[in-house]
Amino acid sequence: MNFPFLQQDQVQHKLAQLDEEKIYTLVLELLNPALREQALLDLSKKREQYEDLALVLWYSFGVMSVLLQEIVSVYPMLTPPTLNGVASNRVCNALALLQCVANHNETRTLFLHAHIPLYLYPFLNTTSKTRPFEYLRLTSLGVIGALVKNDNPEVISFLLSTEIIPLCLRIMETGSELSKTVAIFIVQKILLDETGLYYICQTYERFYAVATVLHNMVNQLVDTQAIRLLKHVIRCYLRLSDNPRAREALRQCLPEPLRDSTFHGMLKDDNATRRCLAQLLINLSDGSMN
After folding, report:
1. How confident is the model at residue 54 (pLDDT cuts 50, 70, 90)?
2. Same domain, yes or no, for 33 and 142?
3. What is the CATH number of the domain that holds 67?
4. Cα Rg for the chain, rounded, in angstroms?
């Protein structure tokens, strides 16, 4: 009676085996320069389907070196900015595989200890507005975003020892809406960590750098009405208000559009963000307790 179901299970198991074999074949093809570009494309498309791809990439001989070679090979195209769409797509496929490694619980720490994120910083430091460069920055931010989204203190400590905050701040001011969203997500995650909040509020210069960019973003949001960005901006301000020194400074420099009704229409259906904004204003009121 159950034979058809058994047969179906066997077919699915066989298909899964074939998919896994295909993954291994593609990983081996990364080592062949003639097959590498297509293998990068195919693996980047399959990275969501095979949960242990990160382990295969990390522990397969020579593969991480190949991915780093792909990244380093485009450095000469950054200055002067000559990166074209084909080269950008290829390196972004390599970055997508690095994001897979950064996102996996068993390879994240190894990824950090190898200081691989530093190889991405030259991409984040570019300023060209062309589509290939914008895609390159966005995909690089995605790798850092994958590192921070799991709230790992070791990740935050590593990032604070690098120049990730100024890089993100510049993108938050000048990038595309998508890039701004990922960059401010990274800054927000750093702020949510106690060490990160302390680091940013430790000196006036660091606090002022973050507060100035957030202020400029608020002014831009009055025109652009980008609600995803507004959510992150409000949550960054709210987290800053947890620090006594930052709270005192924000009483003087919080942008007026956050104090008045400028964004009420945008937030009318977003109760969570409205609560965050209300809490921020309570924290900054003169009667709030330190």
Report:
1. very high
2. yes
3. 1.25.10.10
4. 22
Q: Are residues 22 and 142 in the same domain?
A: yes
- E strands, 155-205, where? none
How far apart (Å, rounded) are the C-alpha atoms in residues 87 and 104? 27
Q: Kindly report, residue by residue over 103-147, the tens digit of the pLDDT.
A: 999 999 999 999 999 999 999 999 999 999 999 999 999 999 999
Intra-chain end-to-end CA distance of the chain, in Å: 71
Name residues whose C-beta falls within 8 Å of residue 107's C-beta, 6 or more positions apart in sequence: 54, 55, 57, 58, 101
Q: Which two tokens stand for residue 289?
A: 């307790």
Inter-axis angle of helices 244-253 and 271-284, to 10 degrees?
100
Give the type of residue at 279. Q
Residue 47 lies in a domain: yes
Q: Is residue 134 a part of any domain in this protein?
A: yes
Q: Do 27 and 115 belong to one domain?
A: yes
Query: Per-residue DSSP letters for 99-145?
Result: HHHHHSTTTHHHHHHTTGGGGGHHHHT----SHHHHHHHHHHHHHHH
Nearest C-alpha neighbor of 117 from the set 182, 46, 166, 68? 68
